[in-house]
Amino acid sequence: MTVRYSTGYRNALATGIGFAALFNRGSINIYTGTQPTTADSAATGTLLGTLTLASGALTKETQASGTITVTGGSTSITAVTVGTFNIIPDGAVLYNTSVGQTASDLCDAINRNGYYTATVSDAVVTIKPRPGAGATHNTYVVASTGSVTATYTDMTGGVSAVNGLIFTPAAGGVVNKSGVWSMNGIAAGTAGWFRLVGSVADAGSAIVAAPYLARMDGSCATSGADLNISNILIAIGAPSTCDQFVYTQPAS
User: Fold this and answer.
1) CATH at 114
2) 83 to each of 87, 142, 143, 179, how far by Cα in Å?
3) pLDDT digits (tens, 9 = 90+) for 75-105
4) Helix, strand or coil for residue 209?
5) Are 85 and 120 within one domain?
6) Total number of domains constituting the chain
7) How confident is the model at residue 1, as a pLDDT?
8) Residues 41 and 88 both lie in one domain
9) Which domain holds residue 178?
């Protein structure tokens, strides 16, 4: 089999979010059978278990969110701050024809930088931090400066992931697993492939439109596979561990 990456992973990498940051506090689902043709496809086979930190019960992250609603104006939005951090560091967003178009331009400016992500609906821009921030951004004040008028809701609703997988800091373009990665089987079967997902909820269904989720798929075996685990003959309640996980960013 071949390691495959989802559209969400590739988009994030192109924007500037690295592998370890993107999958920090994520998890690995182990399935029977053969991996799908793309990582955007729905998961196939039987879910045998989920690798977490020391087999701990997994709580998925809920990202905090806040909003900016563009209401009017004439010239530009010169800065948008979450807490004290300006999330449009490339410069001002000009008022463009209507509040809806200006909100869309603002959404694009936020997404170009990778610090936060944004979506837009009419004149409302919804802002979220990168996956991994969890509850830390709750109560951060959302504001803007400039001649364009807007209303705001501050960051709220964030829930931190619990028992998600963590990685070592990168060295020479390489990151490794950190801590014990293990699981107890929830179904009986032979492990055939895995899907690494991020800290936010991922139901495993097909992804055909935004928001795109980060995923990495590959083969499972006890040796010589994309992911090697201690035992591929999974039984209900039986433990399995991932003793080595290495990601290398190619130099060329």
Assistant:
1) 3.30.70
2) 10, 7, 8, 32
3) 999 999 999 999 999 999 999 999 999 999 9
4) coil
5) yes
6) 2
7) 57
8) no
9) 4-60+161-248
For residue 231, what pLDDT is reported? 92
Which of 110, 136, 156 marks a domain boundary? Answer: 156
Domain co-membership, 69 together with 144: yes
Q: At a CB cut-off of 8 Å and minimum separation 6, what does 157 contact? A: 62, 63, 64, 65, 138
Task: Give the tokens for residue 7.
Answer: 């559209």
C-alpha–C-alpha distance, residues 29 and 58, integer Å: 12
Q: Looking at the structure, tell me whether residues 12 and 131 fall in a common domain.
A: no
What residue has token string 């400016």?
109
Which of 114, 140, 156 terminates a domain? The answer is: 156
Interatomic CA distance for residues 88 and 114, integer angstroms: 10
Q: Cβ–Cβ contacts within 10 Å for residue 13, how many? A: 16
186/205 Cα distance (integer angstroms): 19
The C-alpha atoms of residue 150 and residue 227 are separated, in whole angstroms, by 49
Q: Map tokens 């490794």 to a residue.
A: 176
| pLDDT tens digits along 151-208 | 999 999 999 999 999 999 999 999 999 999 999 999 999 999 999 999 999 999 999 9
The CA distance from 195 to 158, in Å, is: 25
Instruction: Please list, in sequence order, all residues whose beta carbon lies within 8 angstroms of the beta carbon of residue 60, skipping any fewer than 6 positions away.
Output: 161, 199, 200, 201
**List of residues 6+ apart from 154 with CB closer than 8 A:** 66, 139, 140, 141, 142
pLDDT at 209: 85
User: Which structure tokens are listed for 158?
Assistant: 């964030």
